[in-house]
Every structure is written in C-alpha cells, then in structure tokens.
Amino acid sequence: MKLKAPSTRGWIYAIVAGGIVIALPYVLPMGDAHHGWWDKIPGWWVLFGALGCLAIVVFAKTLGHLFLQKPEDWYD
Amino acid sequence: MTERHAILRQRWLLVLILALPLAALLLSADYKAGAEDEHGVPPTVQDAHHEAAAQSAHGDEHGARAEEHGAHGREVAPLLTPTTIPSGILPPALILVLGAILVPFVPRAVRSFLAVALPALTLWYIWTQVPDGCLVVWRFLNYDLHVLRADRLSLIFGKIFTLVGAIAGIYAWHNGERRQQVAALLYNAGAVGVTFSGDYFTLYAFWELMAISSTLLIWARRRPESARAGGRYILVHLAGGAVLLGGILLQYHHTGSFLIERFAPGSGGMAAICILIGFCLNAAVPPLGAWLPDAYPRATITGAIFCSALTTKTAVYVLLRVFPGWEVLAIVGSIMAVYGVVYAVLANDIRELLSYHIISQVGYMVAGCGIGTIMGVNGSTAHAVCHILYKALLFMGAGAVIQTTGFEKLTDLGGFWKRQKWVFFLFMVGAFSISGVPIWNGFTSKSMVVAGAGEAHMTWPFMLLSLASVGTFLSIALKLAYATWMGKDRGIQPEKAPRNMLIAMGIAAFLCTLLGLKPSLLYRDLPYAVHWNPFTIPHLVEAIQILLFTFFTFYVLIPKFVPHRTISIDTDVFYRKPARLARKVFVTAVGAFFDRTDVLGHRVADRVSGALRDPTDWIPGWPRRVPSDDPGYDEDRARMPLALPLGLTLLALAVLSVLLLLS
C-alpha cells in the first residue's frame, strides 16, 4: 500500500478539527492545573500525541526489523 | 478512493473524538455538583460512610495509619479495616466450587444456565451477605485459616470477578462443553478465593487452582499449538507458584504466621522478594510475563474471556494488598505500560495484540500500586474494574470475529465491517474505553493513575503512562479496528454471531459507558474516599488533544500498519528455543540410552543363558545330547494351570465362610 495524499475534503476536516483542538486551551478556562514544566509549553499535549505516536511506531518497527520479528514458523 | 481515505470519510469518528467529551462534560452530574476544593477540583464522591471508614482507618489504635513513606516523600495509603468482625458465613468461592462439582452431572441447557447463575449468585452473595470487615476462621490441622477476610479492597475485586464471570457465562452459553464450563467455574472460584483469603495457606491453594483451571481452558481448544502453549503456561505458573511458596515459607519462618500482611516498602527481606516475584509473574510483569501473549491467543474463544479478566487482576489485587508504595513497582509498571503497546504495534494475531494490551493496562495498575498513595491505590483499583469490563468486551469482539470468519490474523482479515456492524460497534465501545476516550470508563480510571503519578511528582512514570495511552489508542482503536474490519476488503462473508455473544457484549458495553458517564458509581466502592473528578476542562482538553493528534499521525502512517505474517519474540525465547535442545538432552537422549541398554542387556542375558543351559557343552570330547522330540521349555505348558490356584482360593473362601457362619 503506497502513501497517497488525502483528499481535499479530508485535509479540510483535519485542519478544521486540529485548529479547533489546538485553540481549546486558549478559549476555555483551564485554571492552574499544572503537573510540571511541560504544561507551560504551548500545545504540549498536541505535540505529545503526534510525536508520541510517531515515536512508538518508529521504535517498535525498528526493534521489529532489528531482532523482534521472526517468521511464523520460527519456533518450529 | 483508497482504503485509508475511507477512514476519514467516517465522520462519526471525528464527531466522537470532538463532541462526546464535551457531551460528557455537560452530562456529568458529578461536574455540576459540589463546590470546588482548594485545587479547583470539584469533589465527586463525598459518601459519609466512606469518609468515616477512611477516617477510622487513619486513627485506629492498631497502627492502621501507615507511617511508610516513599522516596518522594509521598504518604502510602493507610491500611484498610484493621478490626475484623468474626462471622459464620461461608466463603463466596465455595458457591462456585460446589457448582463446579455439580455442573458435570446436569443436562447441557442447565449447565449453561448454571454457568451464568452461579457467578451471579456469588455476586449477589458478596454484595448482600459479606459485610466490610468480616472475618471467617476455619481450623485446619494446627492452623487457623482466614478463609474469608473482607474489606473495601477485596469486596470490589470480588464483585467485579463474579460480574465478569456471569457476563462471560452468557457469552459462552452456546458452547455447552462440560470441561470448559467446569474449568471456568473453578477459575472464577480461584480468583474469588484469592481475593477473600486472609492467610497465605488459603491464598496459595486458590492460586494454584487458578493456574490449573486456566490451563484447562487453553487445552480445551484441542489444537497442537494450544497443547504446547498450555504446557508452557502451566510450567511457568507452577514455577512462579513454587517461588511464591518459598516466600510464604520464609515469611512463616520469620514471623510464625501465615496471615497476609502488608510489607512496608523495602522491608521483608528474601521472603518479600520471593512473594513479590510470585505475584509479579501472575501480573505478567516483564520479563516474567511472556506466558500471557503466548497462551491467551491459543485459549478457546470463550475461555480467553475468563483468562483476560482473572489471573492478572488477582495478581494486581494481591500487589495492592501486600506491596503498596514499593517504588520499584511504579517504575516497572510504567515501563510495562509502554512495553505492551510496542509489541501490540507489531502483533498480527488479534488476540495476541489484545494480550499485549493486557500487559500494558496492568502496567497502569502496577504503577498505581507502586505510587502507593490513596490516589494511586484508588486509581489502580478503579482501573482494574474498568479494565476487566472493557478487556472482556474486546476479547468477546475478537472471539466473535474468529467464530464467524474462522480467521484470527490481521493479514487474513479486513473490509467487512458493514457485514458485521453490531460486533464492530460494540468492539469500538471497548476500544474507546481502553483508549481513555472521555465518556467511557477507561478515561475515568486511567486518569486517576496518571494524576496519581503527577501528584506524587513522579515525572517519568507520569510521562510513560501518558505515552502508553497514546499507544493504546493507536494500536487498538485505530490499528486493530482498521485492520480487522476496515482496510482492504478480502471478501470475507462472516456468519451471524450467536445472539448470546451479542447480548454479553452489549452488557459489557453498557457497563463501560455507564461507568464512563457516571464514575461515582465506581468511585463510591473504591477502597478510600475519592476526591477526583475526571471531567474537568484541563483533563478533557488534554485527552482530546492527545487523541486527535494521535489519530492524525496514524492516518499519515497507515501504510506502516500493513500487517505481516510474522511473530514477535518475547522473553519466552529463553525457554522456548532451548526447549528443543533440553528435550534432546534430557528426554530423547535418556530414553535412547535406556532403550539401548535394555536391548544390550537382553542380548547378553540371552547369550549367557544359552551358554549355561548345558555346561557339558564346554567339555571337549563329552558326548553330545541326542536331539529328541522334546520341544523344550514351553512356558504355557510348564506353568501351573490357572484353574488350580483359582479353585484352591475359592475352596479356601468357602471353608472360611462356613467356619465363620458356624462360629
């Protein structure tokens, strides 16, 4: 399966939804519920979701290619 | 339109992620009620009885107030109900054990009914007849066995174990296989027995009952790979049980008591370490947890539901009982949460993927136990309850797919969600629950554990647990659902799922939603008073941001999620690979040696007996015997006829009988 660009409608959905979600902390009363330094970084949880997902996939796939993944009959 | 674009056309997915959390905010009665505390968090559960119980625990003269502190200066949750009320009631596990004895002798329809009714009866019994703080002591040999010790922690675990037993019984209604039904009831009895055990003797008996009965549910699938996986499973669990038993005996040697008591962090020496290893093995803590994704995907479709709910969660229960505040558990649990999702990204078998997510989710519970504060213990308990419900739902969905399509690998599945809408819809409820999507129960419990880590200033556990929630949404709600039902249409025409399966899934989905919308129903039964509201704006915004941008990244990376026909090696490689060599050395070679020795021995004996048959043959010049018509020795001819000893025996019996009658 090759990577292809999303449809125009898909991009519009994604940009609108992403923009709304990024803007949420600035329009809603967030209080001062800080866990730590990271809460002071604008868009921290947006970055965390996106980069965390990317990191998990890259980490898992790398380990898989290096030594974790074996043919199905490897134990036989 | 490629397959991956189809996912963006499912507008309901975006609506769910965006709109439902806001709906939850509006719907939540908990959010509206009550004034906010000094942290800006409105109290959710202020149950007076609950407060009183917690307060009594704080001030009890028996030292109920724990004086233990972790390395971060956090205060470990106090002991629960230190006073016990002697009682004459029966242990709840007895209902299930007696039922398991009865079940094989009744007709199939009654068996299916009992498989639901007995756990339901036990649930009712625990709910209404077992009060908080009651104690039942049975005398056995020279020991006082505390066969029933109930407090808030054991009660909530006992309730959820029996509830999921009843739901799984409905799911398995059509099955009717005697062996599985008995094994499932005994397994449930083992979990309930462990939960209410007050001493290690009782705990160990039920612990091993769980190991044996769950093995039967794996073997019951009657496939070669199930037989092998079941063999490995029971060997690993017996080894873990042996370590646990060693710890119990050491503890008895040091204290002279079998009673289950909490170990203060870092105390207890070798006894505590052995007991901890035994518990951690059942909790599937890496590197001791490879048995889980090895065995559960090979269990029967219905048996896997029980497996997913019971073994690891009883281990979490005993960890919460004995080892709260052990910081090593917070670290190990956090790593475990990420470990599971990394393997889940690679998995191809749908139930193996779910099994790795058991490890990941149990990681939250183990971490909550390691955090050890009231928030940590409450969060861990709440997450165990929610996890049992949504994980059972996910395994039921996966089981329905296997039952109706005959396939269990992602490489064989895809593109049939419109032909299996109900199963897909109910599965997605479980998927959103485990992912912590607001409105479902995973959000209300997982957030407690993560917040507990934040409150305890444990930065790395906080980050790793947050990262694991990204991986959970990615691999279950997105990867698994996409690759199983959406993706490339392989022309699969699934059969209709049995109605009882859908009913059981519907009940589990309803409970996941109910506890997600109204978490106070869960919070009020937690071990300690709860001052936590998940439906605050910062929490909801955080959840929405994480979920939506995980979804976007998944969308971009969809080609990376094309499944491959591979397996992923885990720590079980250290005993599975050498197993072949060990078998050759210790079984095949030893057997061959005995076989050769046997043959050689017989050959030598044959030669010697032949040579000694007539020693005169050795004397040169001695006249040889003249061959005659004598056929030689024939054991049938030489043996005393059978009739003679039989006749003599009968005669002696008759004489004895006459003598006895005359006397």
Care to describe what's here?
The complex is a heterodimer of chains A (76) and B (663). In chain A, 59% of the residues lie in helices and 4% in strands. Chain A contains two helices and one strand, in the order ααβ. The model of chain A has no long low-confidence stretch (mean pLDDT 82). Chain B has 663 residues and is mainly α. Chain B has one domain (13-574). Chain B is built from 25 helices and four strands. Chain B has a three-stranded mixed sheet with strand order 1-2-3, with no helix packed on it. In chain B, β2 and β3 form a beta hairpin. Residues 28-67 of chain B have low confidence and may be disordered. The chains are: A mainly alpha (76), B mainly alpha (663). At the A-B interface, α1, α2 and β1 of A face α1, α2, α14, α19 and α22 of B. β1 of chain A pairs antiparallel with β4 (566-568) of chain B, so a sheet runs across the interface.
What are the SSEs and their pairings?
The complex is a heterodimer of chains A (76) and B (663).
Chain A: H1 8-27, H2 44-68, E1 69-71
Chain B: H1 3-9, H2 11-27, H3 29-32, H4 48-59, E1 85-86, H5 93-102, H6 108-129, E2 134-140, E3 143-149, H7 152-171, H8 178-196, H9 200-219, H10 224-255, H11 269-282, H12 291-295, H13 303-322, H14 327-346, H15 350-371, H16 374-405, H17 421-435, H18 441-455, H19 459-485, H20 499-517, H21 520-523, H22 537-557, E4 566-568, H23 573-612, H24 635-638, H25 643-662
Parallel strand pairs in B: 1-2
Antiparallel strand pairs in B: 2-3
Helix pairs in contact in B: 2-22, 5-6, 5-8, 6-7, 6-8, 7-8, 7-13, 7-16, 7-20, 8-9, 8-13, 9-10, 9-13, 10-11, 11-13, 13-15, 13-16, 14-15, 14-19, 15-16, 15-18, 15-19, 16-17, 16-18, 16-20, 17-19, 17-20, 18-19, 18-20, 19-22
